[in-house]
Amino acid sequence: MNATINRRLFIENISPIPVANGVSVLIADGILSVASFSQGVTGRMPAYTIKDGQVFLSEEEWSKVVSSIENSIDSYTDINI
Fold first, then answer.
1. Which residues, listed in sequence order, are joined to residue 41 by a DSSP beta bridge?
2. Closest listed residue to residue 2, CA positions, set 56, 42, 62, 49
3. Per-residue pLDDT for 38 more than 90?
4. 55: enclosing H helix or E strand
5. Is residue 45 within 8 Å of residue 28, measured between CB atoms?
6. CA distance linking residue 74 with residue 27, whole number of Å
7. What does pTM read for this prediction?
8. What is the reported pLDDT for 15?
9. What is the DSSP letter of 14?
């Protein structure tokens, strides 16, 4: 899955989602959607979708994705899973 996202929107809306038992990530039709089933919390944001798909990530895997986006210096950054 590949998409380009707004870093600030991601930090404000997606990175605060609790991930105690992992998350489901869906990128499709111009939307990045993240759901934490154990916490019952979801988040959605616009995304320029390059390759759509869905995956379940462990807490450790999701933390790596979040860190790479938070540490990016660009306003728009790529998310590759």
1. 36
2. 49
3. no
4. strand 53-57
5. no
6. 20
7. 0.88
8. 87
9. T
DSSP state of 63: H
- Residue 17 is predicted with a pLDDT of 87
What is the gyration radius of the CA atoms in the chain, in angstroms? 11
Give SS3 for 61: helix
Residue type, 54: Q
Residue 59, both tokens: 């807490």
**Tens digits of residue pLDDT in 41-65:** 899 999 999 999 999 999 899 999 9
Indicate the pLDDT class of residue 25, thresholds 50, 70 and 90: very high
Tell me the C-alpha distance between 59 and 72, whole Å.
20
Nearest CA-CA partner of 19 in 81, 65, 55, 63: 63
